[in-house]
Structure formats: C-alpha cells, structure tokens
Amino acid sequence: xxxxxxxxxxxxxxxxxxxxxxxxxxxxxxxxxxxxxxxxxxxxxxxxxxxxxxxxxxxxxxxxxxxxxxxxxxxxxxxxxxxxxxxxxxxxxxxxxxxxxxxxxxxxxxxxxxxxxxxxxxxxxxxxxxxxxxxxxxxxxxxxxxxxxxxxxxxxxxxxxxxxxxxxxxxxxxxxx
Length: 177
Prior knowledge:
Pfam families: DUF4154 (PF13689). The protein is of the alpha/beta class.
C-alpha cells in the first residue's frame, strides 16, 4: 500500500533518464509521477473503475502519460488510469473524462473546454502555470530536476471532486513565492 507520504515524496523525486516505463525525458517521467500522484488522492462522487485521463492541446510533458499501457495503476489502491488524447473542440469532454491534462491552447479554446466541463466532476491539471488563474485546479511548474504545482482553491471547491487535504497543503497558491 502506498501512503500519502510515499506519494508525496515521489512528486519531488528525480528519475534517471529513461527510468522504468519512461519513453520520454526525465521531465516527462516526473510529470507522470506528479499527475498520477494527484489522481491517486482525488475522489469522485461516483468512484470510477478506471480513471479516464484526457490530454488536450499541445503538450510538452504528456508523452509518458500517453505511452503508459491502458489501465496503468497510479498507486496503491487507486483505480487504474487510461490516458487518451481528446480534441479541444469535443463538446462532450465533461462526460468523457474524469481528469483533464491541459496543454497549450488558445484562450478561446481554454474557455470552451472549461465550459464543457461545467457540471461534471473532472480533475483539471495544466502544464501551463498561467492556467491556475484561468480555471484549472492544478498547474504544474516543471523544472530541470523536479515538478511542483500550484493550486486554484476556488476551482477545486467548485469542481465536484475532493482532493486529500495534505496534497492541497503541498501546493503553492497562485501569487505566492
């Protein structure tokens, strides 16, 4: 069983290049660990048997997320995660996804995607830190040797999903150093 401490330690660890299961760079592997860690400590109103992770937009670090075999386990007793690309214009994205990984999109596309999620319990994670002020829950900060994240607490509160409070404590609120 993976404890919260174990998962949180993984979020700041650095994997060697070409680490186990990695098809991309160490940054891709680190992003995968952080995203799967966040997913593992998220609870939906109706627990999914498999978490459907949708990847939208042009991404820099989603290669390992998409390359994982279908049903890859996030950790411990968390449900398996199936990652797939979705179109930014998919109107049913809120019912097709339990979690959304957002890459680079235009402001209009971001508004469209987020509007499509309204009323659906979807965890949102963005590669772009500026998105934390624009409607996503978690925003990644990808450095050469680690991945951290910021959080938009208002968006979390309105999302319909619950995130373990200790994960929330790790995040920086937007605008804080």
